[in-house]
Amino acid sequence: MPTYLLKFTFLLILFHKCLCYETKVFGPGLQPVNIVMPARYFFVNFTEIDENSYSPDLAKNFAVEITGKSFKKDACRLWSNTLNRKDGTFIVRYKLYETCSELSINIYYKNKHIENSPFKFKGLIQPDQCDCPQDLQSWLKQYQCPLSYTQIVNDLKPFQHVDMKDQVAKIIDKYHNPQSTSFCHYVIKDNQIYRDCYGKHIGFNMFADNVLLSLTRKVVMPDMELVINLGDWPLLSKGTEPLPIFSWCGSTETIDIVMPTYDITESTLENMGRVTLDTLSVQGNIDRKWETKEPRAFWRGRDSRAERLKLIDIARAHPELINASLTNFFFFREKEAQYGPKLPHVSFFKFFDYKYQINIDGTVAAYRLPYLLAGGGLVLKQESPYYEHFYGQLKPYVHYVPVKRDLSDLVDQLNWVIKYDEKAHDIAKNARIFANENLLPQHIICYHAVLFNEWSKRISGEITVKEGMTHVPQTKFACHCANKENTSHEEL
């Protein structure tokens, strides 16, 4: 063999034995002093690998170790896990259970540090339970929150100089119907939370409580009052007097101020806790590549809308295109014999064994959409008057494929995505990119903070706590809220 070929062969062998992948490491979890959340997270991207070239050997040779010190000089109590997206990228999450110092994030490939690892951080790293509020404006910048959102600007446009005493009285007079509506009047005063709740079913106040408690642990919120609707349906019909009611769902026929849903908010605040379905977990628990997914649409859900029954009819007529079944009967119990039998719930992660996911409204918008977008399947979304806080940013045939409200074109749209498989795959990838840029925990916390901050600017008059309001206290937690100094990231 010629000498130059021997040298080339040697270099090729050496290339395969060494750390030969370029990597990018990014995400809010690499700013642990400034960005506090229930579970911090970051991404590791092996840039030369994609879904097609991915091999399980990558994950076998990839490892992350996160360490720190506690105030007792012991190892800091923390938990981490790695989610493998099977496309050359990993999501790393870690949760602190106490204040830590000297945090070190070590990322290995083939037992060697990847470029820039270890990531070391000076200063105190606080767990999310710490009540260590800081200046709001500085926090918004450190947390990398946008200055505003189009949806917030539009929702708050009717409100300028708002007398909340007058507005709350009107809301109570018009909407206090214990059998059909439930809502809470909140006051934030001196960064303490107080509330009065109205209605028969007020258990969902825990979701509103939790996001306000989370924010007031992180920042000194402006004094403000707000009314949060605890029901699924928005309350304020268009054409009526604008009243400042915050709701989890909006519609084209209403003018409520829209917040992120209680579902995605809970998954943000309970990340790596008791909630297992979130926009991060769904990305790391998908087994099949696009090419090996079943080329049919999948759907499971309860009977909360007539179109869901129609979907069953369509699926029975086209079993080669759709796998759809109901899991519970409540609204149409008399039709269970016709549309049953109901099937057991399926793990949400198994939805993505199929290429196509159908999103149909429930009682209002289907709150599963963020997870469908993140999961890597193509979403066929029913046209709907209902929307969540981010729907205005979605584009048909870019992030999803639209389906008429009555599902009359569902079969045609399915045949289209099957015929144009490459385009369908691109739409599915765009949806995941959208979720990663708009629907991860950092984004949900930012949206709440920006919304409430902008709302506080529109309130006129003094904010007072009405006699008899319930105080919502922070849970006691041992913390060290020292000044955060020397927080730069050292690259060794």
Automatic annotation (TrEMBL):
It comes from the Eukaryota. Its main location: endoplasmic reticulum. Filamin repeats lie at residues 22-123. Keywords: Endoplasmic reticulum, Glycoprotein, Glycosyltransferase, Signal, Transferase. The keyword Endoplasmic reticulum applies. Residues 1-20 form the signal peptide. Coiled coil: none annotated. The keyword Signal applies. InterPro entries: CAP10 (IPR006598), Filamin/ABP280_repeat-like (IPR017868), Ig-like_fold (IPR013783), Ig_E-set (IPR014756), O-Glucosyltr/Glycosyltrsf_90 (IPR051091). Residues 220-462 form the Glycosyl transferase CAP10 domain. Transmembrane segments: none annotated. It catalyses: L-seryl-[EGF-like domain protein] + UDP-alpha-D-glucose = 3-O-(beta-D-glucosyl)-L-seryl-[EGF-like domain protein] + UDP + H(+); L-seryl-[EGF-like domain protein] + UDP-alpha-D-xylose = 3-O-(beta-D-xylosyl)-L-seryl-[EGF-like domain protein] + UDP + H(+). Pathway: Protein modification. One of its GO terms (cellular component) is endoplasmic reticulum lumen. One of its GO terms (molecular function) is glucosyltransferase activity. It is found in: Endoplasmic reticulum lumen. It holds the Pfam family Glyco_transf_90. Belongs to the KDELC family. Protein O-glucosyltransferase. Catalyzes the reaction that attaches glucose through an O-glycosidic linkage to a conserved serine residue found in the consensus sequence C-X-S-X-[PA]-C in epidermal growth factor-like repeats. Regulates Notch signaling by glucosylating Notch in the ER, glucosylation is required for the correct folding and cleavage of Notch. This is Protein O-glucosyltransferase 2. It comes from Bicyclus anynana (Squinting bush brown butterfly).
